[in-house]
Amino acid sequence: MIRATSKGFRLHIGFFGRRNVGKSSLLNAITQQKVSIVSEVAGTTTDPVEKPMELLPIGPVLFVDTAGVDDVGALGAQRIEKTRQAIKRTDVGILVTESGVWTEFEEKLLAELRSHGIPVLVALNKADLRRSDPDHLIRFELDRLPFAEIVATTGEGMDSFRAKLWEIIPAESAESTVILGDLVGPDETAILVMPIDKEAPKGRIKQLQAQSIRELLDVEASCVVVKDTGLLKVLDNMKTPPSIVVTDAQVFEQVARITPDSIPLTAFSILLSRLKGDLIAQTQAAVAVDSLRSGDKVLVAESCTHHPVEEDIGRVKIPRWLQHYVGGALEFTTVKGRDFPEDLSPYKLVIHCGACMWNRREMMSRIGECQRQGVPITNYGLVIAYSLGILERALEPFPEALAAYRQARLEQLEDHSANALPLVNEQNASLVNQL
Fold it and tell me: How far is Cα 166 from Cα 146, in angstroms, rounded to an integer?
């Protein structure tokens, strides 16, 4: 279990509703801190306000206070868009309204939250000023929609609110997050290959790498941390081979050459696909690389807003490897953070970073949008391994993903044959025999 919990591993609880219904007051009440500015002026909250905390008995959470969905004007439209983006990363939604009030805004907001599969708790605030409408309560009961009558400014009803919030927490959110713990057993050893990342702040290592080390210690396993330049020496000095070698995808090719075939090998970004995304779907999407032709458009999506360096993985290395693989120029577009095109039809492929700073809900929302529009989405490590011809080996620790990959390759070969299209890579010719 990850103990020093980062934002990406916290349960995201979003507060949604019209302006001035008391979302910020409720956030302050549940955190018992003045996190959000409270005012009688409608529209005080602009950009989403985030507050991480430990909420017993739930555990580590991230509260997200949003702008009112009934905001007006050009600026209001931008605030509403920020709120809709927050929905995509919300694990549990708190729909806040005033006691006795249930309008089309609440109805539409409830429908939108449910369309994303988000469990919802209705907070009927300001219960000291107006009684709840019995018809509303009957409607909630019939719809199995949990609700709590509260007075956020005084804390009245908060015990009931917390109890009902606990009841709707998704079961999987209470489970420990596994990165490597199921791949390395007690008294076994993992080698983590971690080249110094120029984009990481001085004196730090990447978050997932640090969390991997902690998890290995928690399961009574050992780990050896080494740069790619020191891997060969470490392997030569080990009396017992490691259970797995995990590498940064940027040095995948070098590490694959050094690591004996008898030792399982994968990448941190592939672990992230399993952890934050959909490894099977993103693996199947990686084979879309073979359908790329010179001039095709590829979207590269970064969840972080880091400053790109000279040999940036998403902007330089992946485009270089892909264009070499395809044998022609491709047109790359890069987006950062939560900027993402609504229309994905111009793109033949979306290549996403590992989303180490996001929660799984947000990454799955993005994968779902790509699937709805029929555009394959994979991630950095998967597409790098595929273009280097080592993806099958990198998937060996994950049998289901490996089987899905082989099936996707077989279907692709059959499609190429049926349409008399040339194979991009000679290694495809032996795949049928392997299958």
Answer: 11
